[in-house]
Amino acid sequence: MYIMDVYIVGTAMSKFGILSNKSIKDLVKETVNGALLDANLSKTNLDAAFFSSATQSALQGQHMIPGQVALRSIGIEDIPVVNVENACASASTAFSLAVKDIKSGDSDIVLAVGADKMNIEDKNRMMNVFEGAIDVSEREETFKKLLSLSEDFDLPPEANIDGGKRSIFMDVYAAFAKQHMKNFGTTQRQMAAVSSKNHSHSVHNPLSQFQKNFSIEEVLGARLISWPFTLPMCSPISDGSSAAILMSEKAMKAYGISKRRSIRVLASIISMGINRKADDQSEHITARAARKAYEKAGVGPEDVNLAEVHDASAIAEIMQIENLGFCNIGEGGPFSESGATTIGGKIPVNPSGGLESKGHPIGTTGLAQIHELTMQLRGEAEKRQVDGARIAIAENGGGTYGIEEATACITILEKT
């Protein structure tokens, strides 16, 4: 049976940051119109839309129909709109559903858009929104299990310092970090190298929340958040939006859209984890999802030229480059410290600056990764361009269940 190809024909992303002067509707208008302009299409050409937001319900009180509210305000009407929430993987889930909608034959031109405004005056409510991304009925059991991951690991005295107000996920990632340090000898300096690299990449991304270089020593010397993380090793709380227009090959021919700037979707996988032993990272949710994506795409990690990964903290990037097969399990720390993941290195990771620098508006992040990879594969990333980029991968995780992410999304794209 013939399975039609799906292409990204337009993308757009707002600047990420504290955008107090912009509403959700403003951000959606900016990115949807930008993506349509990039695709040379009109709102009336759209067959369907998938709208992602993770915090709008809790922080703005828009508990239902956020997509219809935002899209009808900019003149998009009379199409099916599906609202998507999948924690930090909401936007890549919306993208994946858009791909499937086209592959099913139901639609030819589909919009995927994500938007979140996380910065509000009530800081406690802003921080507490993260609590909803774990099993709230088993909160204490979850943290007990996470803390047990690093039992018998000798912590330095500074590990007992309270870093002050932070999201629950910095403590979750700190547990993952200590487990990785215990099992593989990963060091705080190697995590700082990841952070330093991502901040250096962000200097050339005008849409990034932060655009400041940090040396490894500066990262290590910054304010402690949750040991072993200092502030530059953690993603900030952000506002922002991103959008993509996807199209069937049949529709591209009908509308006369060239493949020259269109990016082919080789695979788009959403996965849930399994019950596994804590030390068996080969069965990590992302490793399993990546294997499925590579098989579907007909490529392997050795074919990938660049990646955007979910570095909500520096250890996340180390773990995910292992899960994606760029290095062996346990070798992500030395691999990162070697410079292999910088632009110009063996496999550039997070040329956008990643979540640590670019920012992390939860319901938007996955589509922001897609935007960056699209720009890279088109050769339009300017000073952060990865030479010869032909195949790219995005990894986007969401929530926590047990000892890992609750969901994982893997997207593989190809320059046509």
Report the biggest beta sheet as strand number plus sense, adding barrel if it closes: 9 strands, mixed
- Secondary-structure element pattern, one letter each: EHEHHEHEHHHHHEEEHEHEHHHHEE
Radius of gyration: 20 Å
Beta-strand percent range? 15-25%
- Based on Cα principal axes, name the global outline: globular
Give the count of helical stretches: 15
Oligomer: single chain
- Average pLDDT across residues? 96
Unreliable runs: none
* Proportion of helical residues: 25-40%
Strand order of the largest sheet: 3-2-4-7-1-8-11-10-9
> What is the rounded distance between the termini?
22 Å
Number of strands: 11
What would you say this structure looks like, in words?
- This protein has 416 residues and is an alpha/beta fold.
- Helices cover 36% and strands 19% of the residues.
- The protein has 15 helices and eleven strands.
- It has helices at residues 24-39, 56-60, 66-72, 90-103, 123-128, 139-148, 168-184, 188-202, 216-220, 249-255, 285-297, 314-323, 332-337, 354-358, 365-378, and strands at 6-13, 48-52, 81-84, 109-117, 224-226, 229-230, 239-248, 263-272, 306-308, 391-401, 404-415.
- The strands form two sheets. The chain has a nine-stranded mixed beta sheet, with helices on both faces.
- Helix 4 packs across helix 15 and helix 8 crosses helix 12.
- The longest helix has 17 residues, at 168-184.
- It is globular, with a radius of gyration of 20 Å.
- It starts with 5 loop residues before the first strand and ends with a strand.
- The mean pLDDT is 96.
